[in-house]
Amino acid sequence: DGGITQSPKYLFRKEGQNVTLSCEQNLNHDAMYWYRQDPGQGLRLIYYSQIVNDFQKGDIAEGYSVSREKKESFPLTVTSAQKNPTAFYLCASSIDKRTGGLAGASTDTQYFGPGTRLTVL
Amino acid sequence: AQSVAQPEDQVNVAEGNPLTVKCTYSVSGNPYLFWYVQYPNRGLQFLLKYITGDNLVKGSYGFEAEFNKSQTSFHLKKPSALVSDSALYFCAVRPGWDGGATNKLIFGTGTLLAVQP
Questions:
Q1: Residues 6+ apart with CB under 8 A from B60
Q2: Confidence of residue B65 (pLDDT cuts 50, 70, 90)
Q3: pLDDT per residue over B37-47, tens digit each?
Q4: Considering A99, B26, B37, B114, which has the largest number of Cβ atoms within 10 A of its Cβ?
Q5: pLDDT score for B100
Q6: Contacts of B110 in chain A (CB under 8 A)
Q7: Backbone angles phi, psi at B99, to 5 degrees
Q8: By CA distance, what is A97's nearest residue in B?
Q9: pLDDT digits over A89-99, tens only?
């Protein structure tokens, strides 16, 4: 089966703790993304990575960190600096064929994992 | 600022009736437009996308969407709704290359579709 997996499905964290959310894909996609979903706010981009060993901040990167040591894996760490971490976290991936060269916008579809619901106790 | 608007938080429709979920956008350049569906406590599933070409795009599960450049809209439609279509629908846009390249999607806030039997 090809796809994107996220673990755990549910995660509980005490205040002051760091936690790491896992995202793995076997689709051979180049690009991977982390989004945060809150009720009534849609999805907001936390971090994205277009290639191994490189990643870029999204719109709400503060209090989060990522790594991209392998093509298939893009773990997200929610640090104690994130003031309001309770949310549904979604990982996505896509091929990264660009129109207009490396600086062009990719037209490829992002495919999403099943999500991790993080709750701070 | 670049943005996507889904003006209706919820759309109610009777089973068998046509449905429309509205989306308008404000981005620079020629946009790439997407629709996704989300069932409770699940990830997003891709329905369809518009890149270029025919303004009417057909997607999964009988859904289609019409790109209207003059009205900057990309409404999702289905001729006959099913109870199983009840879910949260998201419109997303990626600004085009000629408007300032970015590989990031901008999402609307979502529209809850409720189909009554």
A1: B45, B46, B47, B48
A2: very high
A3: 999 888 999 99
A4: B37
A5: 41
A6: 40, 42
A7: -110, 10
A8: B103
A9: 999 999 876 55
